[in-house]
Structure formats: structure tokens, C-alpha cells
């Protein structure tokens, strides 16, 4: 397989179904992807971050029908009123948004499929099997379980708990069985392709059983991309959807862009859709002779009340339900910090409220306002020059350098929770430093002016490091810390501060205007 060397760092979210509005499970994937994208931008890499919507197929068609409108109208409505606005709500910095109903996508999907057909990768056959519309997938007998409650006595999908439908269709098939060995060899040569380890093991043992050919068309409805050589069929929604990752970056139309961006560095997905990304997608790319993505990272479920959160089970929570109270920074911080990435994690209001209070309001927010207030009170808002450092300042500088290096290394392991934990060692260290140094007591002794200046300069300097390291997770709060330190004038915009320089001590310029703004994380009303 050609291992192309694109120059850009390309990250993607799944493209989300427009059968319903986004909930915090979808927002979770997007926040993590956004965090990784922003961090890499701060490493001064050429980053491309893609998200979008998956609009074809029976699932979307049925929700449109249930709402009494045609599928196109429904998709337009959901994209404009829900899926695009939620990106603002959660402060996502995506470079593009692709909809599978756009011409730029539809035309290239046809080209891709025609190419596979021309190469003899596609044949005609009949498929009979149990289909789960919620998954948009044919199920194997092992994927089904006995239904309970209203579905007692029926076989149901193990993911959705809802009955499957028996379908028999004349379809076109992709010769996926021919890729079993090549995929296994690829996983072997690229041990980091599927992460975490548990996800990799699951996929490898699945593929080892031998792959079946894949039905890639449907003829019982027409909400999809037409099969180019047979207008009575539309392309299976998953084949259509997976191709978004290449159609959005110039595949078949803009070779320069395509070579710059493709292959993807990380496809972020929930574990529900791991096989599509780690088996079908690479097999499709192999068949077309295109480079494979470098990594597929499958994260766990967000659980609410112990169950996988979902709209259909009525545990769905909209991002704005949380953000209206806590703000987008706290929302982002919470999901990045509280969940060990790759594992399932529980959401609860008590937990987010507790972390907000302890870590954001009392930890970071209070620190930022205390430092600005003391520079205001003792030095009229002008950042003092530091005198000679003592062991305490040297230790603080060392903690800052280590926090920066550890956080950066955690990003390479795709471990946002560890990156933030590393940054928090500095938050705790500065708070401890201030408590020990007692600048309010030092201020009482006129002969200790220089010492007071050293303490406040060092505290402000630690805040500078924090602003740089927290910009990817909490862009709004970090921008306000930056502004409050008057850092822009000497150091330039926050987003342009390289992560690599974050831990270099002594970058703030004495004489800068330090101001105390509104509190970063205001106290919550009950
Ligand atoms: N349209 C497909 C993906 C096509 S990608 C080429 C799809 N869409 S979806 O709307 O169902 O979104 C699925 C993704 O949303 C999951 O893979 C996961 O990233 C995220 N999540 C949805 N519910 C979730 C939880 N309860 N918990 C965590 N993530 C969740 O599948």
C-alpha cells in the first residue's frame, strides 16, 4: 500500500446522522477532536479538522417521513437549526463541514464506485438477512439477542434493543472477502492503526474469522447516491458516508489539496462504528489504491444513569442544557478531563458541578483573579520585574516546564485526560506557591519590594504558561487570562504561541499592563 506523506495533520469526527438533533454523546466526540486539532495548531502544524453530517439512508428517510416532510427538507432543517449551531455552542474550530447531500460529495462518490466497478471489485448478487435500520447494517446471528418487554419473543439488535427486519435484495457487492489477509497484514505492520488496544484486539479477532463480501447498494428506497450504472439502486449509506473523509479534501478534483491533507492522521469514532472505520474503510481504500488513514481511535460511551446515553432511550441531554449553566469552556474541560479517553465514562450533574467548583472556580479562576488583583493593588497594574529567583521560583519554573512537556507527550498518546492532569500540576503548584510565599504579608514590608515583585512576576508567568497550555481545551478562559496579563503586546496573539515554548520561563515582559476582568468561572446559582 502506498504510504503517502501528506504534510497536513488531518483529524475527523464521524459525520452525524440527521435523524435527530445532537446530544452530548455527539458533542463529546467533536470536543475531543477539536481539542486535538487546536493543540496541533499550537504546535504550528498545518491542521485540517473536518466534521459534517450523514444525510442519506433509511434511518434519516424514516424520521423525515415521521415528521411529514421529504428527506431533503428534513436534512436541511436539522443541519441549519441543530447541527451547525451546536458547533458554535461547543466552540468547535472545524475547517470545513461536509454534508453528504452536497454535489461535491455525491459526484465523487459516484466516481469512486464506478472506479471499483471498472476494476472488477463489484459484482451482482442477492442478499438475505436481518437488517437493523438504527445501525443501518445487516446483522449476523451472533449480533442478535432475545428481546424483552414489548419485543418479547423477537430477536433484537444488541446495540439498539429493537427488532431487526428480514430483507432479501438483489444488490451489488464489494469483494471485501478478498481483503481479509491484506487487512490482517496491515494491522500487523501498523500496530497503532487501531486504538485503544482493546479496540484493536476486537477488530483483529473479527477479521481473523474471515470477511464476507459486502452489500453496497439498496433498491427498496431511493434516498441516496444513485449507483452510476444502475439507476434503480442507491449506494449503501455507509459506503457513501465513509467517503466523506476524502471527498471533502479534494479527492478527484483538487490533487494539490488531496496530497497535502490525505491520509487522515486520526479518525475519531465511537466504538459503535469501529468496524466500519477499521475494516470496511481500509478495504475500500485498498481496492481503490489510495493511502490508508494513520489511525482510527475508538472512544467509549457516555453513560447517563449507567446506560449508554441516547435520544431513543430518553437519556439524551442537549449540549446547551449544560452549557447554559456552566459555559462552553467548563463543558469542554469536564469531558476532556473526567473521562479516561477510550473508556466509557459517566456523566452526572453532581460531578460536573463539583469539578466546576473545585478545579475551575476555586482552582484556576481564583488564581487568575488573585494574581491580577495583587498586581493591581501593589504595583498599580504594572507587571513588576523579578529579582533573583530563590528555590521556590526555580521549583515553580521546573514544574511549568515539566507540565508543558508532559502535556505535549500525552497528546501524542491521544490522552486528553492525561494532558489536562499534567497541566493541573501547575495550577496546584502556583496556588501552593502563593500560599507559601504570602505576598500580602511581604507587601507590608517596604524593604521587600523586590521580593514582592519576584513573587507576583513568577505567579503571572505561571499563568502565562497556563493560558498557552489550556488554550486548546478552554479557548475563552485562556484568551481572557492572556488579555488580563497584557501579554498580546509583547508576545502576540495567544493562538500563535507555540506549545514548544510554553514552558520556557521568563517570557512575560515586565511593565506589561495587568488588568483584572470579570471572574473566569463565576459562582453558580443553586
Ligand atoms: N453517521 C454515522 C457515522 C458515519 S462516519 C463516516 C453515525 N452517526 S451517529 O449520529 O450515530 O453518530 C455516531 C457517533 O456519535 C458515535 O460514533 C460517537 O462518536 C458519538 N456518540 C453518539 N452517542 C454517543 C454516546 N452515548 N457516547 C459517546 N459517543 C456517542 O454513526
Which hetero compounds are present in the coordinates? 5'-O-[(L-methionyl)-sulphamoyl]adenosine
Shape: elongated
The rounded Rg comes to 26 Å
Major sheet: 6 strands, parallel
How far the N terminus sits from the C terminus, by CA atoms, comes to 58 Å
Q: Trace the largest sheet across and list its strands.
A: 3-2-1-14-15-9
Task: State mean pLDDT (0 to 100 scale).
Answer: 95
Record field, number of beta strands? 18
Number of helices: 20
**Helicity range:** 40-55%
- Helix/strand-derived category reads alpha/beta
Poorly predicted ranges (pLDDT <50, ≥5 residues)?
none
Strand content: 15-25%
Task: Describe, in plain words, how this protein is organized in 3D.
With 526 residues, the protein is an alpha/beta fold. The protein has helices at residues 24-42, 58-66, 71-89, 103-118, 180-189, 197-208, 237-242, 244-247, 255-261, 274-288, 319-326, 328-338, 349-379, 391-412, 416-437, 439-442, 449-470, 475-484, 488-491, 499-502; strands spanning 9-17, 47-54, 96-99, 122-132, 137-139, 144-146, 155-157, 165-174, 194-195, 214-215, 217-218, 226-227, 230-235, 266-270, 296-299, 302-304, 307-308, 345-347. Strands 3-2-1-14-15-9 form a 6-stranded parallel sheet, with helices on both faces. It has a 4-stranded antiparallel sheet with strand order 5-4-8-10. It has a 3-stranded antiparallel sheet with strand order 11-13-12. β1, α1 (24-42) and β2 form a beta-alpha-beta unit. The termini are far apart. The site of 5'-O-[(L-methionyl)-sulphamoyl]adenosine has 21 residues, from β1, α1, α7 and β14. 5'-O-[(L-methionyl)-sulphamoyl]adenosine is lined by residues 14-17, 25-26, 28-29, 54, 241-242, 244, 269-270, 272-273, 301-302, 308-310.
